[in-house]
Every structure is written in structure tokens, then in C-alpha cells.
Amino acid sequence: MKDMQQLKKPLVKVLNRNNDITPFEDPTSLEFLTQKNDCAMFAFGSTSKKRPNNIVLGRIYENEILDMVELGIKRYMAMSEFKTEKIGTCVKPCLVFNGPKWSQSEELRRLKNLLIDAFQKDKVEAIRLQGIEHVMSFTCTEDLNILLRSYKILLKKSGQRTPRIELVEIGPSADFSIRRTKIASEDLYKQARKQPKQLKVTKKKNITHDELGNTHGRIHLGKQELGKIQTRRVKGLKKSPEEKKADRQKKKDLMKAAAQELLTNNE
């Protein structure tokens, strides 16, 4: 639990009291604590003779438990057991899910989605290579055990533009077994995932963004009648005598050509 707190800092609140809570039998106390502390997700650790070394991951919707999975810890190595350099606080991890089992049953699909919600931080639209420092790997084996591994990414020189990547395990390292699950119905799950219209990103036409974050818009206009635009009457915009004489001569030529065409038609 302390290692999970370390991974989730500062988006976590720790409750250290030993309460007699049984989430699967009576989740009322757990729902009260999550509502009191304004938490949408929880991790509950317990141990008993029947189910030793338990950790329960779950999330809340409308002040009630939506999904909940009980994992049994079969093997665990804390972060303090790895004598390596650790990552800093508030580093967003890269989540990797290995194995085809994750998509073969609804329970494993929900567990994968639950782990993503539990360990992801801010959503980002773009990343840079130097910004990826932490990898969390979740592997689902053939006997449905969940293997958790945590690595620090080291970028080494490769003699090319793309660096060579090395992974150093920093912990925690754990093997889990799935004991009990409680997942929401498909309708309730779909309702919980629904986003308000204000949060949906709508694509706007003719708007682009450059590399510096500036917004550029494109406006489509019709044909411009520049001769009919009312402008301020200043001396600099008035026609010169030569231009006025040329306009009068143009009008005379047009009238003369029209009269000649009329005479031709009458003949």
C-alpha cells in the first residue's frame, strides 16, 4: 500500500485506521469513506486466514461501487528492495498490457480498464521521447495470474538519431491471482462512461494550430465589389482630371458603339 501511495502521489489520500470492512459482503462503510473523502477510486488492503494478503481495487459511480476486483498477492518485492535510482514524483507512467488474455473475457477487460484508471495520471495529447521515464507492465498468464513489473527507462547513445533504450527494474514487483470480482452491468457501465457534451472535443472546420500553439483560421468570402465599397472621401482618393476625362471618353465611345449597332439592326 505504501508503494502504491508512492506511485500515485500526490493524487492519493491514505487512511491508516484498522476498520472491520468487508467490501464484497457489505460495501456501505467503504462507500461512506469514499464519499467523505471525495474519491472516485479506492484500494483496500486486508488479510485473513481464509484470504491472506488481499488487495481490492474498485471505483465509484453515483456514490455506489461500480466495479471491484479482489487480488491475492502471491509474491511481492517492494520498491525499497531494488537498490536502483527511482523516478521523480508526478511522472506519468507508460502502461503496457501483455498477453492475449486481456481481451478474451469481460472480467479481464474490466480489470484492464480498472488498472488504467488506477495508475494513469493526466491525459496528454502529445509526448516527447525524453518525457517517457517510467513503464508499468501488466502481464496476464495462461493460468490467469497478473504479473506487475515496474521499470525505469534509460536512453543510451546508439550512434543514430533514435537512442537505444534500456529498462531497469525499480519495483514494485508482484504476482497476483484473481480471487473475486464484482462488475457492473453493461447498461450501468455504459452510463458511467458517458461524458457531458461540454467535455466532448468537436472538430472545428478551417481552424489549424501551428507548432507554437497559435490558432489560425481560414475565412471564405464571396466576390468583392471593390467599386461599390463606400470609402472615406479624401483628396488622395479623388480622381484626377485625366482620369475623369478618360471616363467621359469611355462613356462616349460606349454610347457611339450602341448607336451604330442600333442603326445596323434597323437596316
Automatic annotation (TrEMBL):
Subcellular location: Nucleus, Nucleolus
The UniProt record lists the keyword Transmembrane helix: no
Any Gene Ontology CC annotation: nucleolus
Bias type Basic and acidic residues, positions: 239-253
GO MF annotation: an example: rRNA binding
Region (Disordered): 232-253
Keywords: Nucleus
Occurrences of domain Brix (ranges): 1-187
Signal peptide annotation: none
This protein's record includes keyword Hydrolase: no
Biological process according to GO: maturation of LSU-rRNA from tricistronic rRNA transcript (SSU-rRNA, 5.8S rRNA, LSU-rRNA); ribosomal large subunit assembly
Principal location listed in the UniProt entry: nucleus
Family: Belongs to the RPF2 family.
Identification of the protein by name: Ribosome production factor 2 homolog
